[in-house]
Amino acid sequence: MTFMAKPKVAHPELPRNALGLTRRDYEGSNSTLCAGCGHDSITASIVEACWANALQPQNLVKLSGIGCSSKTTAYFVSGAHGFNSVHGRMPSVATGANAANRKLHYIGVSGDGDTLSIGLGQFIHAIRRNLNMVYIIENNGVYGLTKGQFSASADVGTKAKKGEVNSQPPIDPVQLALTLGASFVGRGFSGDKRQLVPLIQAGLRHPGFALIDVLSPCVTFNDHEGSTKSYAYTREHYHAAVEADYVPRAEAIAVDYPAGESLLVPLHDGSQVRLRKLEPAFDTRNRANAYAYIDAKLHEGEYVTGLIHAQDAPEHELHAVNRTAATPLNRMPYERLNPGAATLAKLMARYR
Amino acid sequence: MEPTDTAEPDYFHKVVDCQWACPAHTDVPEYIRLIAQGEFTDAYMVNRASNVFPGILGRVCDRPCEPACRRGRIEDKPVAICRLKRVAADHRDDISALLPRAPEQKNGKRVACIGAGPASLTVANDLLPLGYEVTIFEQFAVAGGLMRTNIPAFRLPANVLNEEIGYIVSMGADLRLNSPIRSMKQLLDAKEFDAVFVGSGAPKGKELELPGRRDSDRIHIGIAWLESVAFDHIDKIGERVLIIGVGNTAMDCCRTSMRLGAKDVKVMARKPRKFFKASAWELEDAEHETVQIVVNRAPKSFVTKDGKLAGMMFEALEYDISGGEITATRVLGDEFYPCDDVILAIGQENAFPWIERDIGINLDRWNVPVVDKTTFQSTRPEVFFGGDAAFGPKNIIWSVEHGHQAAISIHKFCQGESVAARMPRGLTLSSRKMGMHEWSYKNEYNAAERRLVPHVGLVERFKKVNVEVELGFTAEQAALEVQRCLNCDMQTVFTAKLCIECDACIDVCPTDCLTITHGGEEADLRTRLRAPARVTAQPLVVSGALPQTGRVMVKDENLCVHCGLCAERCPTAAWDMQKSTIHWPHAGDGETACRPKQRQSA
Question: Is the pLDDT of residue B264 over 70?
């Protein structure tokens, strides 16, 4: 970890967003992760995406569970709301918060352990309910906090730092999410911000559950020869199928991109994700095709990255299905939140 | 862009902007660090090794280091480098045991220095420890040259001068006061000396031949007038004084006038303020003392009434300025300014009426000696020039550096070596890493603003002509000001083959000076960096190809605050913090043990 605090001094010409803020205004406290951890780069990408989307810091909610990944919510947007929950239970807390206030933006940060082992049940139900949030998995294949045991995403044949070889097949969160009908599924790599930042920007605007699985090497326990999640291995085997650019609303209206090469995925606020296919056989909009393609590539030992699947308008969404109140509960008059003793007595009478 | 060659000694030297800008290459960050540690004596000695007169320069240096200071690019104001130098001088202990000593056994070579100013004194300082017998000829009854005669005592007290000149003279220089050299031919013909160094300064003030110039004795030449004040020949002046010219001599003239009884002092400038030659801080001090600065007035004539100076006629001017240059000038009309005295401070020149024209020392068509810019040798091999005598008026710190370089040449010349073969510059880098997250230096960024030096009150300072105006930093101020130094000599050193491209350094850099990107030409690279890099005077460092992707690490040196976070966050020690020590050669380096070892610490 870094023992020196990052000084407040900044480049005097840093660009400012629509709110007049620089990216430095979206930083959090000092990271306590190992120097060189992939998670810190993901944190920097979240900072960049929130800045570029000109998000009001107080309109963001950061949620996490337990693990190295889950510590990182402290390291970005210190002006946001935050909840560091129980191991694997972040989706429940996110669901509650979301139901109470749908006006906020929700970013959940979790790890492969938090999501694919202890929290797998919660994770799949969050997808099933199409909870409106960005769910980032910082995926490094090991339990870093407990010194590098294999996690549920470790590949068959990958080697632990001390030489042990993994024989259990992995759970791929991207394939899992596709089979469950997730409406926005992406995969990135902590070492490629050019790809990752637009993914997070688009995810923040997607009206439903946006899963972004990010390969994020564990520099201490999983960055050695024989590991399939090291920096060097990931660089050789990550395979960008589409190049995604986030196009803000104003620009999307102003520019009419030629169809064909570029594929535009409109987001509900008028902004767009512009996709450029790098693979002719790949179709982001077709779930079955996307699944088959990444499955085939996984068997070749390649991780497909980019925006893997996105629906223009998700069919169902938590708030619509559950008919939640549009007004955040904290803005609702007390009388509406609490109908009073008389109403309660009437209600209770029905069960007598 | 080819990978930057950081092995070239000047590369890391240039990163230490203050040291690179200093003509004598004073190790600024090192002495500021020593002050921070309370080691004032060591800080003084680090200074003295380069600039010889820390106490003097800590008060009156032209401070080329301060406009160069990186802090001035991060915030508005640079570190108060000059005033910290004075802190080291004010608080040092007795340093006599640390001074270089002349050996008992002389080397049999004799050197004459003409003029006892900063250049000659530096030559003596460098040559005496090598066994030379040095004789200094001075026309006045005291040593110091322009430092004594032209800089008023309220800026530079006599005891400070005496002390620092004394260090050199007591090394065994033969200082001959009241001994002007009237004939160079005679001196050379006597063959008493193996080499002669001319450090006689630029003692001739420029004239302003306008109508009426010769009609009054109340029109003075600035530097001659200051000299008369310094030697107590003049102790009063009229109530209304006009100063012509707006350089640093003009500032000394106006402020001296205020102390000799003047009530209304006007500095008359031909051009607008941004074209002034005076240092900003000297202008500020003068205006604080109620001196009025009048711009856009060109002198036209001196006006006398009944044989007495009545005032001066000026032309009021108007300028068109575009892109920082004057493009047109218009005369608006005449204006009369009454006065009792006029002081001309429009420049000075070197003058050599005592150098015969037929002795092999060539002078050019402006009567300036032909001097080699590197060796300071004249066209007569055993004669060397330095300071203002060589290339016209500059400042004290340049004179000191000329003295150092001339001493190298004289030493080589006397030892029968080639004068043109200069000694190589060097640079040592040593890692500050002691272990995981352990560094043998501290460089936390302190957001403190520049401290202001306390001054003596206006009433008190005008009581006598020699009341020193600046008091120097208090202990508390100095303690905070030293923390403003960014320690630019703690260099960020990158080893490409160790980099795993995890982006940690890029994410953590507070001033966004790092980028990993594909290689390219500099102009193109500058457009692809994480933050704008428009200051092309500050270099980009480009690494070789990184092992995993073949991209390159680019660092924009401009705004790096040397906080060391890149190295602290680097998992593979591809970034390291290494202290650079610059070796700027002086006469006899590496040959003798006469210079006591100086402590170098970080």
Answer: yes
